[in-house]
Every structure is written in structure tokens, then in C-alpha cells.
Amino acid sequence: MYRLPDLKKNTRINAIAVMTSGGDSPGMNPAIRSVTRAALNQGIRVFGINRGYSGLIIGDFTELKSGDVSNIVQRGGTILKSDRCEAFKDPAVRHQAGEILKEHHIGGLIVIGGDGSLTGAHLLTHETGIPVIGLPGTIDNDIYGTEDTIGFDTALNTALEAIDKIRDTAISHERIFLVEVMGRNSGHIASQVGVACGAEMIIVPEIDFKLEALCFSLASQRAEGHGSSGIIVVAEGPRPGLTYRLANQLEAQGEKPGVCILGHIQRGGRPTGHDRVLASCLGAASVTYLLAGFTDVMIGMIDSKITATPLLDIMEKRKPLNPQLVELAQLLHK
Ligand SMILES: Nc1ncnc2c1ncn2[C@@H]1O[C@H](COP(=O)(O)OP(=O)(O)OP(=O)(O)O)[C@@H](O)[C@H]1O
Ligand SMILES: O=P(O)(O)OC[C@H]1O[C@](O)(CO)[C@@H](O)[C@@H]1O
Ligand SMILES: [Mg+2]
């Protein structure tokens, strides 16, 4: 049961802005819809900022009415577009962004994005005094202060759909496949995808991995008559090319692995029901918190309860990976 916050309005905000930033994630649209309609229902004007911080620093705003967010709850991507904006790392540029928001009489900003976007959000409110609330929108699920990020569940299911198909080929041809999933420096996608697809092994940046162990595991699998097909889920990790390097090393050991890099397929598509509900709850809650006078926090969900975590914590604390999932996958495939 999701419980929404019961906070009283405590500000005189008349207009807010909302933007999406970083990699797009399925569920950003339901979040935009929820923010927009929750604010409009309270008589607050809403401005959509196009293309994340790139749009903010040039004042690329569009006023959103209720009809502008109709029929988007089921759509992947983001109607506001997204971007990575290097210039926003410059304090002078953030000062300019603050001035633009003030010129437009924006009383608060809601930033939907990943850890990088929320870092920018913290610096913006800290340096300019504009109230800012963050929402966790990224497929990577690498954000402290929320169990799931908006988009993670859809990415997980998209990856699974693809891997289930790859497994058909792996079984038919008795081959090992290395399947690379996204996640940047974290293995949250890989660990959950790995358990859910019945992977023979999961390789994540958080846990040391030895090629010899992988070769040994493949050899003993064969010796035990478990067949010679299998799926190894590899988190992309911080250095590009890991999966191909592993494949080359395995080939040198006499294996003939197939490689599949799932790539951006994981970022698109209709958000799952879980992501739509999460985005809708967090979107509405972010407006409640903003109007109640909160700033510099991210609204997340832990144990089905809405939480507000200081953005500074989001920047400084790393969400731990559950190593038991990686061990469980290895235990269950035997
Ligand atoms: N240290 C920082 N200072 C100011 N702004 C930042 C900082 N880090 C990131 N940003 C802003 O946030 C944008 C998005 O950051 P980043 O590319 O890390 O993606 P993200 O928000 O973590 O999302 P995802 O990981 O899902 O792609 C950056 O392009 C930049 O505009
Ligand atoms: O689409 P881009 O800019 O290459 O970014 C890819 C990165 O973005 C993400 O999809 C989301 O953060 C990561 O998993 C991946 O490393
Ligand atoms: Mg990120």
C-alpha cells in the first residue's frame, strides 16, 4: 500500500517548473504528468523546461496545461526531451540559471533525473536559493534514498525479454552468451536481471571477479552434465569494452562465447505498471513537499513509504549492491 504524504501547504508559490535530465528513463512521462496535474489541481502554474539543464540555461520554457500531459502515462522517453549539459557544472552558468528562473517568477523546480542531475539540482538550490526537489529518474537504480528509481523496473523487464530470446539460441546451439547490460558504474541492473533470467554467472563492478573462476565454473558445469549453454550477465562497468575483452579471454581458453550488448534498447519502451505507479506517486508527492516548504531533497520510496532524502546524501552516499543476489544466481542455476 503506497502512502502519500499528508503535509500542509506552507508557501506562496504560484508557479513551478519541471524538467528531465540525464539519460531518459521509462516513467519520466508519467512523472511529468503527475507533477503537472498535482500542481494545476492546486491552482499553481506549471512550466516545462525543454532539454534538461541545456534548456534551463537559455530559458527554453513551455507552459504546461492539463491537456499537454494527456495520453503520456503509457509512453516511454520524455515529452520534455533530455540532455547532458556539461556547461551546468560551471557555477557562473548555474547563477545565470537561477536568474532565469527568478525572471520567470518560478517559485520552485522539480528535477527528474539520475545522480548527476540531482547533484546539479543540489548545487542550484544551494547557490541560488531557488527551492528544488529531485525525483529519481534513471534506469540505473544507483540512487541512495529510494528502493527503485523510475525506469529501473521497465529496463529490467526489457532486458529479460531480450535475454529469454538469446537463451533459446544458447540452448539450441549449446553456446555460452555474454550479455552486457547498462548500469554505468553500478551492477543493480545486472544483479536483478541475472537472478531473473537464471544466469549462470553475474559480473558486476562492485564484486571482484576472476576469469579463472569463470572458466572453472564453465568446465565443472560441463563435467556435471549441466550442458554447455549458458548466459553470463555482465554489467557494462566504468570502462567500455569489458564484455568483448572477456569474450576474447574466454576464446583464448578454448570457449566460443557469443556476445550481445543490449545497449539503448534498455532505455526505451512503455513503462511497466510498477514504474507508472512509482512515477505517479513520487511526482504528486514532490509537489506536496515543494508547496510545504521543503527544498534540497529527493523524494523516493522505501518500504512503500514516501521519503525525503537530502540531496547532499544522494551525492555522498552510494546505494549498496546486494551481493546475495549474485550468489543466489550461482546457487540456483545448478
Ligand atoms: N557535478 C555536477 N555539477 C553540476 N551539474 C551536474 C554535475 N553532474 C551532473 N550534472 C548535470 O546533470 C546532467 C546529467 O548528469 P549525468 O550525465 O551524470 O546523468 P544522470 O542524471 O546521472 O542520469 P543517468 O545516469 O540516468 O544518465 C549533466 O549533464 C549535468 O548537466
Ligand atoms: O546514452 P549515453 O549518453 O551514451 O549514456 C549511456 C549511459 O546512460 C545510462 O543508460 C543511464 O545512466 C547508463 O546505464 C549508460 O552507461
Ligand atoms: Mg547517473
Automatic annotation (TrEMBL):
Binding site for ATP: 23, 84-85, 114-117
Domain of life of the native organism: Bacteria
EC number, UniProt record: 2.7.1.11
Pathway assigned in UniProt: Carbohydrate degradation; glycolysis; D-glyceraldehyde 3-phosphate and glycerone phosphate from D-glucose: step 3/4
Cofactor dependency: Mg(2+)
Keyword match Iron: no
Residue ranges annotated for the Phosphofructokinase domain, each copy included: 16-289
Reactions this protein catalyses: beta-D-fructose 6-phosphate + ATP = beta-D-fructose 1,6-bisphosphate + ADP + H(+)
Residues reported to bind Mg(2+): 115
UniProt cross-references to InterPro entries, sorted A to Z: ATP_PFK (IPR022953), ATP_PFK_prok-type (IPR012003), PFKA_ATP_prok (IPR012828), Phosphofructokinase_dom (IPR000023), PKF_sf (IPR035966)
Alphabetized Pfam families for the sequence: PFK (PF00365)
Catalytic residue positions: 140
Compartments where found: Cytoplasm
Residues the record lists as binding ADP: 33-37, 167, 198-200
HAMAP family given in the database record: Phosphofructokinase_I_B1
Free-text function comment from the UniProt entry: Catalyzes the phosphorylation of D-fructose 6-phosphate to fructose 1,6-bisphosphate by ATP, the first committing step of glycolysis.
Assembly behavior: Homotetramer.
Protein name: ATP-dependent 6-phosphofructokinase
Origin species: Amphritea atlantica
